[in-house]
Structure formats: C-alpha cells, structure tokens
Specification:
Blueprint (H helix, E strand, L loop, with lengths): L1 H7 L7 H13 L3 H14 L4 H13 L3 H14 L4 H14 L1
Helix pairs in contact: 2-3, 2-4, 3-4, 4-5, 5-6
Length: 98
Amino acid sequence: MQNLLNKIFNRKNKNHIYYALEGEVERKLGNYNKSLRYFNMAINKDPKNDMYYISRALSYKELGKYKEALKDINEALKINPDIEKAVSIKNELISLLK
C-alpha cells in the first residue's frame, strides 16, 4: 500500500491526505504508535479536519491511552458537533475511564 501511496504522492506533494492515509494503513495493520506519527503530521497540516482527530483517537484507544483519545474526540466535536461516530466513541471512552 505504501508503494501505491508513494506513486500517487511524490516527495514534494505529501500533504495531509497522504499522512492521513498512511496513518489509516498503519492503524489497520496494528502499528498504533506509527499511525499516531502520521496522524500528528496530518493534523499539523490540516488542524480543522475532524476525522484526523477521530482517527488519532482510535489509535490512542487501542494503546489504552483513553485520556488522550478523549481529548482528540472532544477536539473533533468542537470542529463538528454533529458527528455521531465521535459521540459514540466519546461515550465508550468515558465508560473505559471509570
């Protein structure tokens, strides 16, 4: 998958979409720490994208870092308060923190 992404995005135009896709690939492969690095880069390039915060929260959740995940979910909800997926994840994280 990475080779395909590298063909689509050359070194000069790796943007937030590239980093978000890399993060999703790494998360699906179970490489959560690596996925966090990619989501961090995506967020740095596009800090108003709610889905990047949700994706990063899911990686934090898999690592058992529930407070960090909840912080990201809250940030996503600030950007877009109508995301049902974020509300569902938030409720799950609150129950895990109890």
